[in-house]
Amino acid sequence: MRYVYGLSSALLVGGAAVSLITGQPLGAQVAQNDDAVMERVVPVAGAPASFADLTAQLQPAVVNIATRQRIEVNNNPFAGTPFADLFSRRGGTQPQTREAQSLGSGFIISADGYVVTNNHVVSPDARAKLESITVTLPDGTEYEAELVGADAQSDLAVLKIKSGKAFPFVTFGDSSTARPGDWVVAIGNPFGLNGTVTSGIISAVYRNTGQGGAYDRYIQTDASINRGNSGGPLFDMRGNVIGINNAIFSPSGGSVGIGFAIPSEIAAPIVEQLKAGREIERGYLGVGLAPINEDFAASLGLEKRRGEFVQTVQDDSPAAKAGLKPGDIITKVNGKDVTADQTVSFLVANLEPGAQVPVELLRDGKRLAVNVTLGKRPSEAELRQQTQTFDPDAEEPMAPGSSDGTIEEKLGLQVLGMTPQIARSLGVPPETKGVVIGAVDPNSDAARKGLRRGDIILSANYQDVASVEDLLAQVNAATGEGREAMLLRVQRRTQAPAFIPVRLR
User: Fold this and answer.
1) Does 441 carry a binding-site annotation?
2) Which of this chain's residues are annotated to bind substrate (predicted)?
3) Residues 360 and 313 placed together within one structural domain of the fold
């Protein structure tokens, strides 16, 4: 189960009489006939006398999912430092592995045994190698399953039970027809308690939790959802799956009545693509955004909760090519209003790469319309890299820059390739060519010569260095020629480039 942690508060209201039926004070209703009041308060299609019949029909298709993974454990004392590879090559301890497990829920969507669950149930750790998946039916029968497809961005995965048996299954409903106040039932495996059923109502059909991402758009329910419910179904009163239980808002780690499920209208098309073995491709704009909160709205004279503020525009992105600028306010995408529950990221991610999309925006108080040809949305790792900043004054080292550790070993330097983001952090033009020093071995000649994190190596032995591979080639060439030092041309912030001889080790 994923958690959205936060603090809760209670609002105690006294002395106010409110009626949701007539708008009259509560006292005016009490004065009426008691039977008439009950008839008006309780709707005809109210809570069922029991959920037992519905549960009996649905529960056979809800399964427990258990995985076994093998995780590599690094015993290198320098793990996470620029010299981790160097330690290993010099006889350091070899990585060991340990076994890990995960537990969650899922549901069968076809008689031939296709199962839907959350991606984080079957892919809980980036370092782990998935070894086996076991699906357990409510009657205790266990089956091996294979991973057919997974999508980290929507947190969805599809499995296939390895059996020729016909299985009971459930189907997706239309979450867009759900309304706040509708009854729902969640069935799953919280805390390893197989076949647990909880009920509640929908609090919101489209809830943005503020965690960001293209799919921060959930059904919110007070049906109890706990650890182990991840991937389980959220049913409406007709027995249709309208949500996939995914996360909870909790200051304690347990259910406090605020649970989130991926709406079926989002999940169903992605599940079909995963089931067919197709890659999930999404549109991409290439902007960093901020919601129009109360302060933004007040400073700009805008209606709050409408539109999103463009903080950054990625270089050479579809947005940059269409002329979007930092400070723009995007109000519509493809004719749909941008709101807190219908973000730019969500609207764009649900369009095909290559699509030409009209985007309406405000710039300097004027309304503009531009056409954007969407790109393909990068992976989450690539998106994190795009937004990564480089702090030249930070003490924490970054990962080694070269694949074989030669630069670290010979020069005592950890380097990484220049990117537009790093260039901005260093205050140099984005087109600057070179490699950036990420860390310096304090026992190296490079440290004695004053090289430090954030310095840019422009050339080595009079040869331009535009990448880590270029520098590695010059180090290998100098070593092969038996040289004892290399001549580096180094640029530091606010200073002119200088040539510095650095002894090889």
Assistant:
1) no
2) 120, 155, 228-230
3) yes
